[in-house]
Design goal:
Length: 268
């Protein structure tokens, strides 16, 4: 693996893995604490519509997927704040329509033979310098928002009614978290793909939640765990010629099982 570090695509993959792991650790913690996992799953699959449109019209993939995902996040935020009891219906609808639009636009793209596997299960080795720039900007935005509004986000995440009484704009922060989740999902597609992205956002957070009693601690630990899972999964992917996304998630899942087993034995 050491000789592989001389290749630029391996360097890009490692940098992207670490950057996205930090994004996933922070946003994944907010998704889990605010019980938005199903919402994030719907946004992830809806973004496929943006991928299809980007391929058809010749836009950058990240741009098309981001616009579509953010649009879906705004729609779901509006619906969940007004009709929370029917949100599962709308998630299923947006999920299916987004995927269908993506498939149709890819079918209509003349002379383009797209590799669906790279979007469904990830292709971290295909990360470019432009992708790294996009991911870096997103990470800076996430860090700024999280640090600047940490107390408000903390209040909204754990007790929205109390936050509202304190004068915190709950709807704004709820929508903001969903939008950031949408963008994190889009950049994570490069690593693990649409199918497995929710696992990257939740498995490290589940472990971190057991190891930390604060939101900040949960974010830090889950980011570190995500980076470890990503780097180990990338090593296995390169060494044994495996799909990167599946390798990363399998490493995360096995680590979770090991953590649960150790926890069980300790309590016994």
């Amino acid at each position: 693996m050491l000789e592989a570090l001389s290749y630029s695509f391996i360097q890009n993959a490692l940098i992207a893995g670490v950057l996205i792991s930090i994004c996933a650790g922070i946003i994944g913690s907010l998704i889990v604490v605010n019980r938005m996992v199903f919402l994030a799953g719907g946004i992830a699959h809806t973004s496929y519509g943006g991928i299809g449109m980007a391929i058809y019209f010749g836009f950058p993939i990240f741009f098309g997927a981001s616009m579509f995902a953010v649009g879906a996040a705004l729609i779901l935020a509006s619906i969940s704040l007004k009709q929370k009891n029917r949100i599962d219906t709308f998630i299923g609808l947006i999920w299916a329509v987004g995927m269908a639009i993506g498939v149709l636009f890819i079918d209509l793209t003349p002379g383009y033979n797209v590799d669906l596997m790279s979007y469904l299960f990830g292709s971290i080795l295909a990360v470019s310098r432009d992708d790294l720039l996009f991911i870096s900007i997103l990470l800076l935005i996430i860090l700024f928002i999280t640090i600047f509004w940490y107390r408000d986000i903390l209040a909204v995440s754990y007790d929205s009614e109390y936050a509202s009484l304190r004068g915190v704009h709950v709807k704004f922060f709820y929508t903001l978290i969903l939008v950031l989740s949408a963008l994190t999902v889009v950049v994570s597609i490069k690593i693990v793909g649409l199918i497995l992205v929710i696992a990257l956002l939740t498995i490290p957070v589940y472990i971190a939640e057991k190891l930390s009693s604060t939101l900040g601690g949960m974010m830090s630990i889950s980011a570190l765990l995500s980076a470890c899972f990503t780097l180990v999964g990338l090593y296995l992917s390169y060494t044994y010629d495996l799909t990167s996304g599946a390798s990363i998630i399998l490493v995360a899942a096995l680590s979770l099982l090991l953590f649960l087993a150790i926890n069980f034995l300790r309590h016994r």
